[in-house]
Write a structure and sequence with these properties.
This protein is α/β, with parallel strands linked by helices. Helix content is 36%, strand content 14%. Strands 1-2-3-4-5-6-7-8 form an eight-stranded parallel barrel, surrounded by five helices.
């Protein structure tokens, strides 16, 4: 059993105030024994103007605070500026009709289309804007950079998205060469089944590894495979992580799996288990979080687990605390998990 598994928190990219800032979660981190924190580097916000360098002042302050508390830090690169992915000239009217087959399910509401900032840039090499962005991230005081988030779910177009992610990982390796930073990817959404808007996690992972081999990428000691683990926790099973771990062990032997997001949403628990009592739902979340962690500890290859959110997000209710910061039963369950490195 992997008793030495690292445990930490993945904070959210948004929020309506400062609840996803590190400072707002500092007490929770200390009380629950986390050793890692995952922060978001949201490219469109940090570099809205291509003529100016990214503004890392707030992010660097977050990193410095986490470092002062003795934590290891991971940055996840998220979204793409419209000036970098060919959509800067689109007016709101043109946006509403632009490449909808790749952005909304057939017959779906166009208002629910994927955002333009999730469109994959055409240029992803070392000398591209994306390569320079990753190089700038590599100048931060961090231990790991995750090159993308849930590409088999968020990004578009989905066709050949595995090839784009392979280029991202190769570019990260090139621009971060000579640093101590671990290249992390692909932060796969553990979805089952696929279509024009999303790809099954195993189908995507196989295609990505094939592409990495094709372009000559070699996973070394500064490479970690990342996977998200909601489906297993919410279903109280381990089929998805077991399948992902088996694939990585076969195709990328020796490379660790970092579960960079895990958790159980109250909305999903209530729906799937037909629970109406809020107290019961919250107690069940605590059970599922603890049981899911123990299964990950027992899963060969998994070296890290990051819970997604202390203070919850009203649109993705997996947090260990309420919106006002009051701990839920799952918070105490998380805090009582075995000691970690």
């Amino acid at each position: 059993m992997g008793v030495g598994i690292a445990r930490g928190i993945a904070l959210g990219p948004g929020g309506i105030g400062d609840e996803q800032r590190y400072a707002s979660n500092r007490r929770f981190v200390a009380e629950t024994g986390c050793t890692w924190v995952r922060l978001w580097a949201e490219w469109p916000k940090l570099q809205a103007d291509p003529r100016r360098a990214p503004n890392f002042s707030e992010l660097d302050a977050e990193i410095a605070a986490a470092r002062a508390d003795g934590l290891k830090v991971m940055l996840t690169s998220w979204r793409y500026p419209r000036w970098a992915n060919g959509t800067a000239a689109l007016t709101p009217e043109r946006d509403a009709a632009f490449e909808l087959a790749d952005r909304v399910k057939p017959g779906g509401d166009p208002a629910r289309r994927k955002d333009l900032t999730f469109r994959v840039p055409g240029e992803l090499g070392e000398d591209s804007a994306y390569g320079r962005w990753l190089a700038a991230l590599g100048e931060r005081d961090v231990d790991a950079i995750e090159v993308v988030n849930e590409p088999n779910h968020q990004l578009w177009p989905q066709r050949a998205v595995h090839a784009a992610v392979a280029r991202m990982m190769a570019t990260a390796r090139a621009v971060l060469d000579g640093t101590r930073i671990t290249v992390v990817g692909p932060a796969t959404a553990d979805r089952r089944g696929g279509g024009p808007l999303g790809t099954d996690h195993l189908q995507f992972a196989r295609a990505l590894i094939d592409e990495l081999e094709l372009i000559g990428f070699r996973a070394d000691e500064r490479t970690a495979w990342s996977h998200h683990n909601y489906g297993d926790v919410e279903s109280d099973g381990a089929e998805r992580i077991a399948a992902a771990a088996a694939l990585v062990a076969e195709r990328l032997p020796g490379r660790p799996i970092w579960v960079t997001e895990t958790g159980a949403r109250l909305t999903t628990i209530a729906r799937d288990e037909r629970l109406r009592d809020d107290v019961v739902v919250r107690r069940r979340q605590a059970e599922l979080v603890a049981r899911g962690y123990e299964r990950l500890r027992a899963q060969a290859g998994v070296d890290m687990v990051l819970q997604y959110l202390f203070i919850t997000d009203m649109n993705y209710d997996s947090g260990l605390c309420e919106l006002d910061g009051r701990p839920r039963p799952a918070y105490y369950a998380w805090a009582q998990l075995p000691a970690v490195r």
